[in-house]
Amino acid sequence: MSEGLLETAEAPSPKGSREDALVMRDVRVTLPTGRGRLRIIRDATFHVGKGEIVALAGESGSGKSTSIMAALRLLPAGAQVEGTILLDGQGVLAMPKRRLRDLRAKRARLVFQDPWRSLHPMKRIGAQLVESARTADPSLSRDAARRLAEQMLARVGIPEPASRMNSYPHEVSGGQSQRIVIAMALVAGPAVLFCDEPTTALDVTTQAQILELLKELNRELGLSIVIATHDLDVIADLADRLVVMYAGEVVESGPTAEVLTRPRHPYTWSLLRSAPGSHEPGGRLHTIEGRPPGPAERLTGCAFAARCPSAHEVCGSARPEPRPVAPGRTAACLLAEGYGPITPGARDEH
Ligand SMILES: Nc1ncnc2c1ncn2[C@@H]1O[C@H](COP(=O)(O)OP(=O)(O)OP(=O)(O)O)[C@@H](O)[C@H]1O
Predict the structure, then answer these.
(1) What pairing do the DSSP bridges indicate for beta strands 22-33 and 53-57?
(2) ipTM greater than 0.90, yes or no?
């Protein structure tokens, strides 16, 4: 778990520095299962700059949630995490439990897909907000915490916040609950907000409103946001940078607009092609054929090779490492550098 290299990094590097909100470097996660210990994350490297919104994208099971839980050290008992994780400038993996709890109460907060997971059903909303504020700052008086809670409820768009404080979670809608969960995070004054599919359980209109709220909070408070999603449409408008994951690996990363318009990894290209809204002129929606390899499968080459429209023979036997392919961009594809941008039918061209 060496952090030596990062200590000397001054300017933001492709792999991040202590100045970043989050640095994940060569992170490997294994989990104990009925089938033995399985490797869930393989050498994942990415960073989230201060004030940046970074999306983790990929199909279900690609390792987005596990990466977030590893960053917060919230993985189930028995999980083994190797590599380097710096959250708000602090090494997470060797951190004593008390400091870790402090970090999670104040500086790094998590918003789940299901707001009910964060709200106590039997406690009034106001009491939960006050508790969150006072856990983060025990010097805060009950009155000051209530005022802050009301302010934050208003900030996230809850009408009549003072009277809402007296409601129970079951008395508000799903969209409002998610706003309340975000307010619960905000009263702590966090530096980083982790959002794991924060809008998947919501209807389309509410989804758009929550995403707009996240954007505003990022702009106004300088909040760094890490958002896991399998929905490329969601991130296109929200994220500054995109980290694409496949089978527990980071296969591509870079500024969102660039990655979405000129993907350098065939998986990103396939994902884009399969996204709703990217219909071909005939109106056909594509799906990526086949399935990603599971964590129990032994890989000799590229994890995407079996499904890749551009695969060469070498892809089945050589494992690609993420490499810089343009300023601020990486791709883990043997073809990304030597063969230029990935396009349909690329295999036929070589
Ligand atoms: N506690 C666990 N025990 C065993 N395997 C797990 C556990 N948690 C996750 N996994 C496995 O780890 C892999 C990555 O899961 P993860 O939930 O991180 O993916 P994801 O990209 O967030 O997917 P989703 O979009 O469905 O949430 C999957 O193969 C999953 O089955």
Answers:
(1) unpaired
(2) yes
